[in-house]
Amino acid sequence: MLRTHRHLSGSIAAVAVLGLVASGCDGTGFAPGGDDEAGDAVSAGSTPATITINVRDAATDISVDTLVRVAAADGTLSKVTVSSKAGPVSGRLVQGGARWVAQDRLEPDARYRIVATAEGSDGAVVESTTTFRTRALSLDEQTYPSVAPLDGETVGVGMPVVVTFDLPVTDKASFEKNMTVTSAPSQRGSWRWVSDTEAHWRPKAYWKAGTEVSVDIDINGVDAGGGIYGQEDRDIDFSVGDAHVYRVDARTHQMKVFENGKLLRTLPITTGKPGFTTRSGVKVIMEKFESRRMNSETVGIPQGSAEAYDIDDVQWAMRLTSSGEFIHAAPWSVGSQGQANVSHGCTGMSTANAEWLYGMTRRGDVVETVGTDRSMEPDNGYGDWNIAWADYVEGSALD
Question: How far apart are alpha carbons 366 and 247 in whole angstroms?
Fold first, then answer.
């Protein structure tokens, strides 16, 4: 794990401290009869403060998903610090200083020191010190989140937030509670789990041009289920650029290019011929290549077939699906562009038109294709927009 997390407990002679045994608490709060009850009340008499912590002193097996909590009875907490070589643990005082709650979880195999100071109703200041060590975790017990878009990237209005985990998440609800997307202006959206290792978030409608988005994947130390825990938090900020929507009609063999609702150009194109039909539906630009080798074997057409191809330098290629649909320059089919569908499923155009389109396109720009009897699969790349909103929301792990 690459970030920090926290837990607290301890006692000194001047303070009556209740050290809760790890097996007697739930890992996130206090044991029954512990500081939850004691921390809310301050006696009317002049008595020294009592500090309680939900981690026992000298413990060596504390789980990384523990949230450290400290409480004071017959007094108020003035300061709590949780420190380790893995980094400090932040937290906040609540209930007028009656309690302190950690805002992060813990790092594996780390030694922590908790120092809590409280002032009693008698005016005396007391301090409690506790040390403990967290349980070690191997890399096979930690799942790492990769996030798209990249931090600082400007994307198109169709770009979903994509979080990919390198180990499966079976407790999806626990993870999703700690995964948030906020935007300015605010736009309603939802997570949808594509699999145990991938979750997408999209707004109900395309992003508004100019939106600023923040993604907070706060899963460090969160229990993923199956003995696996989140390895690291990720914080990503990205921007949404102009609204680029490209409308492809396979029947008229034309692409209309819109920017912020204004038609810029109509381009003659060709799409998939019979047997290689282009998918109809909403696609999103996934990646761009100035030049890319295209080999038919990667899309299931074997070498030696009459339909086989292997072209080293297809120019201005922009991926639309994981399965291999692209928009790209196709100088070999210029005579058919605007007239007939002759490709193996890609949307082809002249080199000049492809270069112009490539120059304005960002990852996340939208391609809306109509005119074929083959539908776009929702999980074939960024196919999120092909799912009705009510069904998309059903893909969330939360009610």
Answer: 8
In which region does residue 347 sit, left (phi positive, over 0), alpha (psi from -120 to 50) or beta (all else)? beta
Check residue 272 and report its DSSP letter.
B
**Under DSSP, is residue 94 helix (H, G, I), strand (E, B) or coil?**
strand
DSSP 8-state symbol, 303: T
**What percent of the chain is helix, strand and coil (3-state, nearest 5)?**
10, 40, 50
Catalytic residues: 328, 346
Question: Once rounded to an integer, what is the mean pLDDT over residues 351-378?
Answer: 98
Query: In 21-98, which ranges are E strands?
Result: 50-53, 69-73, 75-83, 91-94
CB contact at 8 A, 237 and 149: no
Structural contact between residues 57 and 131, judged by C-beta atoms closer than 8 angstroms? yes
The b-or-e profile of 270-306 (16+ CB within 10 A means b, else e) is: bbbbeebebbbbbbbbbebbeebebebeebebeeeee
List the Cα angle 118/123/124 in 5-degree steps: 60
Question: Which pLDDT value is given to residue 340?
Answer: 98
